[in-house]
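Class, study these two lines:
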Amino acid sequence: MEPVWITGMGLITSIGNDRSTVLNSLRTMKHGIENPAMLQGEESPVKVAGTVKGFDVDSPDPEDWIYPSEYRVPRATIRSFSPHVLYAWCALQQAIEDANLSKDELQDPESGLYTSSGGSMRSIHKHFEKMDRRGVMACNPLAIVASIAGTLTFNLVAALGVRGSSMGTVSACASSGHALGTALDEIRLGRQKRMLVVGAEDCNFESIVPFCGMRALSLETNPDQASRPFDKKRNGFVGTGGSVCLVLETESEAKRRGANPYARFLGWGQASDGHNVAISHPEGRGLQDAMKKALKDAKIRATDIDYINAHAPSTSIGDASEIKALKAIFTAPQSVKLSSTKALTGHGLSLSSIMEAAFCSLALKEGFLPGSANVTEPDPELQHLDLLRSSPDLQVDRILSNSSGFGGANVSLVLEKV
């Protein structure tokens, strides 16, 4: 099967809304977590979030939203957007420009678009609220396509004129990993020569606070200490939103166009825990299987991996499960380097896998490794795993990135320096 390259990238994240800002944040370990006004009321036990800067999307009318002028959305198009669709539109525009794709290339039947999101809790809530207050026929005719889990696909495929493969994946925090993996397969099977993959989530009260009911969120009030994966005192994840888009192409197509790749997408694997609807298997058995399958697909061994970008959301149970899974695959004396960038960004839910794949692609291209911030007492169970507590200038060849979601869904991605 022909090699697949990552040739374009777009980023709307808590640590920056463009490649250079994100790169600087990763290198300097500058986090994007704040105390936003939306979480400071008595009704919100959680006080911190990885905020998306430069956007004001609080109005129920998308035409009133404020966002960077270079991403101007036509009025007829934005009417069916929810906040995360706007983030995705902006990330897509960046990625298309970054990959230097023409309109004809974008609308080629051999160019597709895969998306991942959980839909918009705010939009769904507002539409039902209006329906209950004013009656069914008062509903916005675009309410469904603006809010449910497929809203990214509906809106972006139509707005961009995409004619190739399209679908949305919904597997919680593994969603965009599944989207990337299936997009890779779509290209390797010869069905498409190019795939755009985008993940996105809202960043508002309705998308974050409900996780308090699961006792999953950090109740820390200090943004500098809230997200601390692999620390003994970790106490829950920090929510975030935004969007990231990656462009995947066959090597021959990328070379034909003179594209400058970030990385080679070498392989992927997925597996399930078969254990619990919300809690990872205590030994991380599904994640172990996903990593084994990813290594097999990439035709490499565990000893060929130089760095692991862990899922590690900063929850006590989740981090512990992943540590056990990692030690089962990367056995001593191999001292593989490890970190979780969620300490900087917060946890992007269905966005997290593609966001972290983008960070790994930047690391391969720019010759550094992103560190794990906010760790004062590393979990002693890490043992031979080498937790990076800074972001060293270090060129590596291969990176593995993990994601785990509700129901025990696990995805592992393998990226390689071109």
Notes: Residues 83-99 form the longest helix (17 residues). The first strand starts at residue 4 and ends at 12.
